[in-house]
């Protein structure tokens, strides 16, 4: 008989067998039911989403996935890993008595849709909404229990109205370092007006022009525009944040070269929160690796700021963590972009300038200009690389070492960056490896001020390498006012800091690696800034009544791009070409005036900085979020001193991007009294990645994985050998498997079980389509244990289950319940499988209590089949809100434990004892055992060591 005939015969004999076709029917019906019933609606305590007070009174649990971006190519099976995991966890939490908020929206602004619009002329909204629709369809098919009433998309004007509103809260705020919090800018203006706070420079606030006042406030605002070095990417036509530039100095998207350029851009003063961003990590339940990444990115270091005078009016300020080595500073280096460079460069080379310092140029100005162009073509990473050849050029200027009074030459060099410290360093070549190499290359003096711990002596000019240590003593470090000689580093740093502070030429300070967040993009497909400029160029915020400021229609979606290597270019945005939208007449409270709109847009990170708040109160048109609702879901409570989402699941790649930015926005909103949670996400969990085999031909190009044949351990495509490697899954690697394919072949419940069973959630794992069938068979066996495949009716009995079954059941309930609560889904599935196998081997119809608890046990993992079996067992309600089974402790413990009795280390007896037996009882049993008595043969006993219930060790006299 053919395979087709065999399958047909089997289907005739068992018309109610669990098959892919049956799974598809079951899953579609229950998904429709859940939608119509509002099964996953989480009630708020108040507002339009308020619901059953009894449910609201339960412990709450807010569970979130990181915002997905709706890709036009749809999902592959690697994408839903985290979504399935949070769904399983959310279902378990509902069944253990929680009011669970679990929903999903879309981070829908972004470059891919804009690039598609540029290429096709299709409006980004059209392609983005189509991608969202497809993704919603795919996610629905997986049976995810989201509260769909709360779903959001960042591109909806009613959503980005509040993104713009938050931007204005930040723009109209300043950070009060005394109060250690953000305050409204109006309070700062009032302090300037009444004289309680001095205006910078000692000026009279009333005497300042409007433009001058705007400049003063710009130095305080938490969102501000400034001319600053930025990462300019001509190939993309936009500037990028530091975090969007790869380690080799190219754009994360598109892999284009990135250059340093000075442009006027919007920034967020995230640096004001650097201390709090580090300190508050201690209150969060996050992976240690992510906390470390954030701490390293923020980069707090303690040291001193020191002024080196260049002229009577100009001084170079450096930050150093080794102020104790000031006597060893023999030259200085500025970043090529440093603003003082243009001021201090003289017209001609000073008399006696070394030829190696000039780079062969006729004048300092020429040398500096040429070197700046050279440095601008290199990435920050390239500039910091430990290159063998040290480059730089003398500026022609000298600065005065404040402790030695010595005139030291000032250079510019690419290994000093504006992005760290002050963009200037004091060079102590005897004790810094890079300074040592630079000094050798440019024939600069070295002075030993830290006593080496070897026999090299203190004449640094004879050394082969620098010497650096925190353990050594200071030498050659004294003038008529201070001496550090003989002191240890810690004591010397403190004494030098005090000395600098007393003389007003320095002070102890803390420095951060973190830079302010570049917040402008030269794009169309992003949130417009709610900012307009008057005829004097002063920025004004739009009133809330004018929000949202919607994106206008444009004919050309692309920013002006340039040749990727053309650094001498500047941005031109799509919005700037829509003059009717840009130039407007508005009444901002002082009469109708002409204004010009901001033509940059916000970065794609903006909408994801606060989306957890919108999930709480998604239809509120009057407030960002109702305070009572925010307090209910995210407010501080025991174990969560800073509040936040109970569980946030996503990839570790967002450690210093989204996660840092969202924390900053939450802290500003908290300071201003808009929310009660100082942190957005209390518990963070990073899921691993589903990987897949990539097959490459002789050219190294990927070939379709589905068409590769394996023969004798080797792999062939179209008859030609190919190489196999494990990597990411994706369309470009031709190894993507879609969830639609697996759902069609096996069903969504099988896919859910397989992804959860592949291994620990936080570990990457390889996809193997052939292994999916294992979970499919588990569901088939589960189905057969409860349903008669011939009639489709439940086959349970009202008889009492035997003790062995009760023990297997309650051990599974106890183990799987703890595993589900701890996100250990693979081990939970293993325990459920073990129980199901026990029931299969036992044979016969299941006792009703066993069948029902088995269904409830698997319900969080395979909800569709659980709902169907629950109905077949005669219930009319859903399993979603049923109580999760509770284990009976009497059946969880082992019925008996084998205790080994040893004499002189050799086993003389094995006793079957209760697991709860006491030491005294076990000792009596062991000493009464016939085998033990025979082995002792009347000998006395010196000592008995008991480790109940598993070991007794007898030491004869």
Instruction: Report the β-strand fraction as a percent range.
Output: 15-25%
* N→C terminal distance: 77 Å
Number-wise, the strands total 31
Count of spatially separate domains? 5
Q: Layout of SSEs?
A:
Layout: H1 3-13, H2 20-37, H3 53-56, E1 60-65, H4 81-95, E2 99-102, H5 111-120, H6 124-141, H7 157-171, E3 173-176, E4 181-184, H8 185-194, H9 210-218, E5 223-233, E6 238-240, E7 259-268, H10 274-279, H11 288-298, E8 300-309, E9 315-320, E10 331-334, H12 341-344, H13 355-358, H14 364-376, H15 380-384, E11 393-400, E12 407-412, E13 424-427, H16 433-441, H17 489-502, E14 506-512, E15 517-518, E16 531-533, E17 539-541, H18 579-582, E18 583-587, E19 592-597, H19 611-616, H20 627-634, E20 647-650, H21 658-671, E21 684-686, E22 690-696, E23 702-703, E24 709-711, E25 714-717, E26 720-727, H22 739-745, H23 748-757, E27 765-766, H24 773-786, H25 803-821, H26 825-842, H27 848-858, H28 863-872, H29 889-892, E28 897-903, E29 906-913, H30 919-928, H31 930-936, E30 941-947, E31 951-956
Parallel strand pairs: 1-2, 1-20, 10-12, 20-21, 22-27, 28-31
Antiparallel strand pairs: 3-4, 5-6, 5-7, 7-15, 8-9, 8-14, 10-13, 11-12, 16-17, 16-19, 18-19, 22-23, 22-26, 24-25, 25-26, 28-29, 30-31
At a glance:
By secondary structure, the chain is α+β, with helices and mostly antiparallel strands. α4 (81-95) links the parallel β1 and β2 (99-102).
């Amino acid at each position: 008989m053919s395979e087709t005939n065999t399958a047909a015969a089997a289907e005739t004999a068992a018309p109610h067998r669990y098959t892919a076709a049956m799974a598809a029917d079951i899953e579609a019906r229950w998904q429709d039911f859940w939608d119509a019933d509002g099964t996953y609606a989480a009630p708020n305590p108040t507002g339009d989403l308020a619901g059953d007070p009894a449910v609201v009174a339960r412990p709450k649990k807010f569970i979130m996935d990181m915002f997905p971006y709706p890709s036009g190519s749809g999902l592959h099976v690697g994408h839903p890993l985290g979504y399935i995991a949070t769904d399983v966890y959310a279902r378990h939490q509902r069944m253990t008595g929680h009011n669970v908020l679990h929903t999903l929206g879309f981070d829908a602004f972004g470059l891919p849709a804009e690039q598609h619009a540029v290429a096709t002329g299709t409006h980004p909204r059209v392609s983005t909404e189509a991608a969202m629709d497809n993704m919603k369809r795919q996610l629905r098919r997986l049976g995810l229990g989201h509260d769909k009433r709360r779903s959001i998309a960042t591109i909806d004007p009613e959503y980005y109205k509040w993104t713009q509103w938050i931007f204005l809260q930040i723009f109209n705020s300043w950070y009060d370092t005394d109060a250690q919090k953000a305050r409204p800018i109006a309070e700062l203006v009032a302090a300037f007006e009444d004289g309680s706070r001095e205006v910078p420079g000692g000026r009279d606030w009333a005497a300042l022009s409007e433009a001058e006042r705007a400049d003063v406030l710009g130095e305080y605002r938490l969102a501000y525009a400034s001319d600053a070095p930025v990462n300019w990417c001509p190939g993309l036509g936009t500037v990028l944040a530091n975090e969007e530039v790869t380690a080799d100095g190219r754009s994360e998207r598109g892999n284009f070269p990135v250059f340093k350029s000075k442009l006027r851009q919007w920034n967020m003063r995230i640096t004001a929160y650097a201390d709090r961003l580090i300190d508050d990590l201690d209150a969060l339940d996050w992976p240690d690796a992510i906390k470390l990444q954030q701490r390293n990115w923020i980069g707090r270091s303690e040291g001193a700021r020191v002024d080196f005078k260049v002229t009577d009016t100009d001084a170079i300020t450096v930050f150093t963590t080794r102020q104790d080595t000031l006597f060893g500073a023999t030259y200085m280096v500025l970043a090529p972009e440093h603003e003082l460079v243009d001021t201090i460069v003289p017209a001609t080379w000073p008399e006696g300038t070394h030829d190696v310092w000039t780079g062969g140029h006729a004048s300092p100005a020429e040398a500096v200009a040429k070197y700046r162009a050279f440095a601008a073509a290199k990435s920050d990473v390239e500039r910091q690389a430990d290159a063998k050849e040290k480059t730089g050029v003398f500026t022609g200027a000298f600065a005065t070492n404040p402790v030695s009074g010595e005139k030291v030459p000032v250079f510019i060099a690419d290994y000093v960056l504006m992005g760290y410290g002050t963009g200037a360093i004091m060079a102590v070549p005897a004790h810094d490896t890079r300074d040592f190499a630079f000094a050798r290359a440019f024939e600069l003096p070295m002075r030993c001020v830290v006593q080496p711990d070897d026999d090299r002596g203190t004449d640094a000019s004879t050394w082969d390498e620098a010497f650096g240590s925190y353990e050594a003593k200071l030498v050659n470090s004294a003038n008529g006012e201070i001496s550090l000689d003989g002191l240890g580093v810690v004591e010397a740093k403190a004494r030098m800091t005090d000395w600098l502070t007393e003389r007003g030429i320095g002070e102890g300070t803390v420095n951060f690696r973190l830079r302010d967040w570049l917040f402008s993009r030269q794009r169309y497909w992003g949130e417009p800034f709610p900012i307009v400029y008057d005829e004097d160029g002063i920025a004004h915020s739009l009133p809330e009544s004018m929000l949202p400021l919607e994106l206008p229609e444009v004919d050309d979606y692309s920013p002006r791009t340039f040749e990727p290597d053309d650094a001498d270019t500047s941005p031109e945005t799509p919005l700037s070409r829509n003059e009717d939208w840009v130039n407007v007449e508005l009444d901002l409270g002082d009469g109708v005036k002409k204004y010009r709109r901001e033509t940059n847009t916000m970065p794609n990170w903006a909408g994801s900085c606060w989306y957890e708040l919108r999930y709480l109160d998604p239809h509120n048109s009057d407030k960002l979020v109702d305070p009572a609702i925010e307090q209910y879901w995210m407010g501080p409570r025991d174990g969560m001193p800073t509040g936040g989402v109970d569980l946030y699941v996503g990839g570790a790649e967002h450690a210093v991007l989204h996660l840092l930015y969202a924390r900053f926005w939450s802290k500003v909103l908290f300071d201003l009294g808009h929310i009660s949670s100082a942190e957005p996400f209390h518990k963070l969990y990073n899921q691993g990645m589903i990987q897949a085999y990539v097959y490459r031909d002789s050219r190294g190009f990927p070939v379709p994985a589905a068409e590769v044949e394996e023969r004798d351990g080797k792999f062939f495509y179209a008859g030609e050998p190919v190489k196999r490697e494990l990597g990411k899954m994706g369309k470009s690697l031709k190894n993507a498997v879609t969830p639609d394919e697996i759902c069609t072949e096996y069903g969504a419940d099988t896919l859910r079980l397989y992804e959860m069973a592949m291994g620990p959630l936080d570990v990457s794992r390889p996809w193997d389509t052939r292994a999916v069938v294992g979970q499919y068979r588990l569901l088939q066996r589960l189905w057969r244990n409860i349903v008669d495949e011939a009639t489709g009716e439940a086959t349970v009995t009202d008889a009492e289950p035997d003790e062995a079954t009760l023990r297997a059941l309650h051990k599974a309930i106890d183990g799987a319940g703890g595993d589900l609560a701890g996100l250990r889904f693979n081990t939970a599935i293993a325990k459920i499988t073990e129980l199901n196998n026990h029931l299969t081997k036992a044979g016969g119809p299941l006792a009703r209590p066993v069948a029902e608890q088995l269904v409830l046990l698997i319900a969080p993992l395979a909800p569709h089949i659980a709902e169907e079996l629950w109905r077949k067992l005669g219930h009319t309600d859903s399993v979603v809100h049923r109580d999760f089974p509770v284990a009976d402790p009497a059946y969880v413990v082992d019925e008996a434990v084998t205790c080994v009795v040893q004499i002189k280390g050799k086993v003389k007896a094995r006793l079957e004892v209760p697991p709860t037996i006491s030491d005294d009882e076990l000792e009596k049993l062991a000493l009464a055992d016939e085998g033990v008595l025979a082995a002792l043969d009347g000998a006395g006993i010196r000592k008995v060591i008991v480790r109940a219930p598993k070991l007794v060790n007898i030491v004869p006299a």
